[in-house]
Amino acid sequence: MDTTTAEIVEQLFTNYLKENKLRRTPERYAILSAVYSIDGYFDIETLHKYLEENEKFMVSKATVYNTISLLINADLVIHHQFGGESMYEKCYGGEKCYTICTKCHKVEEAKNIKISENIATNIKRFYPTHFSLYIYGLCSKCNRTQKRRRQKKR
Q1: pLDDT above 70 coverage of the chain, percent
Q2: Which residues lie across from 17 on neighbouring strands?
Q3: Where are the beta strands (DSSP E) in the chain?
Q4: CA max distance for the chain
Q5: Is 152's pLDDT higher than 90?
Q6: Cα 39 from Cα 20, distance rounded (Å)
Q7: Who's near 129: CB < 8 A, 6+ residues apart?
Q8: How high is the mean pLDDT of the chain?
Q9: What is the pLDDT of residue 47?
Q10: Which residues are CB-contacts of 106 (< 8 A; sequence separation ≥ 6)?
Q11: Worst-scoring range by mean pLDDT, 50-64, 72-86, 126-140?
Q12: Which of 42, 66, 83, 123 is the most interior residue, by most CB within 10 Å?
């Protein structure tokens, strides 16, 4: 995470904790830093392991779960439900678009999609800070398999 983003998200989190009269603990800030160091989405197990192995920071899973909830409420993390699996992702300053295969449940982030300009011009008196878009369908592999099966039936 670059210095500017780190400073901004840390300040936003500090403001959120102050406004809600919550403690500003080293564990919470370590989890915030780890979240913003991970590229893409992650689950709680992955985050917990990252904290222990990469940050050398020992923290309980309960603390990770509780802090993730705070980060979601502070609009710094987004919760995804991909095929019944809970995943999380940093969301400060982000536009996220995902393609999700309805057959094999493969999830990929679609890069370089600029939707925010359209959203901003089509939604009156609403100021989006971030968003996620999910596009469901078939990945290329599942689509090829489905086409082959249809051709065999003919």
Answers
A1: 81
A2: none
A3: 77-82, 85-90, 95-101, 107-109, 131-137
A4: 67
A5: no
A6: 29
A7: 75
A8: 85
A9: 97
A10: 100, 139
A11: 126-140
A12: 42
